[in-house]
Design brief:
The protein has 218 residues and is of the alpha+beta class. The protein is built from eight helices and five strands. Strands 1-2-5 form a three-stranded mixed beta sheet. Strands 3-4 form a two-stranded antiparallel sheet. The N and C termini lie far apart (37 Å).
């Protein structure tokens, strides 16, 4: 495993340990109607799966520089480099994407939330995520941490006050996945990394953690 991956795994492990101490994950999963046993299984699966990227396809690239925007969106600069040709592998992260998406599909299968509410919630967070997310060369896609969770919770409260936590989780996960990851795939040539992982490099970039925080706030 590369040094960067080991460092990321270590940081994520510390983060999980801290979160477990204050029982935030347990509270969030309890609000979603999951038992402690299932919650523990999901946490372990997410932690271990954060280091697993499943390749989907590769993209040929040829570039001479990057446009880089600062987090406050007030400063733009360009990094020039020699012409570079190669490939970027697009992959999907098990812990940061597949597990939360699978959980969303489970909640949808319960049929306790109207399909119109789900569509409206997902579209709202998708539009928000696309507007406020930015490609950060060498790192991935970044966006304000609490923007999607807060909005997901608010939208869910308006659309379905009875099943707020479930709708907030579904809207947050799918909205960030589509708006900040899938719709940004067309710009991955500027990533400057050999692998573009959906839900990875930041597992917790917006997909997994957005769902958890949204459920907590709902």
């Amino acid at each position: 495993m590369p040094v960067n991956s080991l460092l990321l795994f270590f940081v994520i492990s510390l983060f999980f340990a801290a979160m477990l101490q204050v029982h935030l994950f347990n509270i969030a999963f309890a609000k979603l109607g999951l038992t402690p046993e299932i919650s523990l299984f999901l946490l372990l699966g997410t932690l271990l799966g954060s280091g697993i990227n499943l390749p989907l396809y590769s993209v040929n690239i040829k570039e001479t520089g990057h446009l880089v925007m600062s987090p406050d969106r007030k400063l733009i600069w360009e990094i020039f480099q020699p012409v570079r040709e190669g490939k970027i592998v697009v992959a999907i992260n098990v812990g940061g994407c597949l597990i939360p998406v699978g959980l969303c599909l489970y909640f949808i299968s319960l049929q306790v939330i109207g399909p119109i509410d789900i569509i409206v919630g997902v579209l709202a967070i998708t539009a928000l995520s696309y507007k406020f997310s930015r490609l950060i060369p060498g790192l991935g896609v970044g966006m304000p941490v609490f923007l999607a969770p807060l909005t997901s919770a608010l939208v869910a409260m308006i659309l379905d006050p009875v099943h707020t936590a479930h709708l907030a989780y579904i809207s947050g996960v799918f909205g960030v996945l589509i708006g900040a990851d899938i719709l940004r795939l067309k710009t991955i040539a500027g990533l400057g990394a050999p692998v573009a992982s959906i839900g990875g490099a930041g597992t917790f970039d917006g997909i997994f953690m957005t769902g958890i925080i949204a459920a907590l706030l709902a």
